[in-house]
Amino acid sequence: MSAKSRRHAAILKLIAGQSFRAQESLRAALEREGHECTQATLSRDLTQLGVLKGPEGYLPPTAAPASPPVGDGALATTLRRELLSIEKGGTMVVLRTPPGHGNALAVELDRTRPSGMIGSIAGDDTVFVAAASPRSANSLARTLRRLAGLSAS
């Protein structure tokens, strides 16, 4: 088994057993187990493994439910819990969340695929949603506002 494979296995074991909210604390735990790596290497490892970061910290890729609830109900629940604001510009809809919540919202958007959405890119507290056209972006923003219970702006 290569050093990378051993490190990947150690990462999955660590995040399955305890909560890590910061890469530095996970990197330090790996080091204590004999796996030296830089923050950049750890970041690449987490991406390659499909590890998600939620409000409670890093989650193994298997932490997502096998058959998640779909439909407007699940999306509405997630939007009400995670969404702070919506802005649109051109064919993009920009969603703001509390720190650490962007990925959770993007996962639900990708699962439910609201009409007009092409795809999403999530950051720590921001989700960029691509729409097919400016008109689709307007419609998508209205739909997301309605589902989230936010007033129109």
For this entry, give a set of tags:
153 residues, alpha+beta, Arc Repressor Mutant, subunit A, Gyrase A, domain 2, four-stranded antiparallel β-sheet, two-stranded antiparallel ribbon, 6 helices, 48% helix, elongated
Here the CATH topology of the largest domain equals: Gyrase A, domain 2
CATH class of the largest domain: Alpha Beta
Give the radius of gyration. 18 Å
Which class of secondary structure composition applies to the elements? alpha+beta
Low-confidence stretches: 65-71
Q: What gap, in angstroms, lies between the N and C termini?
A: 55 Å
How much of the sequence lies in strands comes to 15-25%
- Overall 3D geometry? elongated
Mean of residue pLDDT values: 85
Order of secondary-structure elements: HHHEEHEEHEEH
Domains counted in the coordinates: how many? 2
Word description of this protein:
This protein is α+β, with helices and mostly antiparallel strands. It folds into two domains: 3-62, Arc Repressor Mutant, subunit A, CATH 1.10.10; 72-148, 2-Layer Sandwich (Gyrase A, domain 2). The protein is 48% helix and 18% strand. It has six helices and six strands, in the order αααββαββαββα. The strands form two sheets. A four-stranded antiparallel beta sheet has the order 3-4-6-5, with helices on one face. Strands 1-2 form a two-stranded antiparallel ribbon. Strand 3 (85-89) and strand 4 form a beta hairpin. It starts with a helix and ends in a 5-residue tail after the last helix.
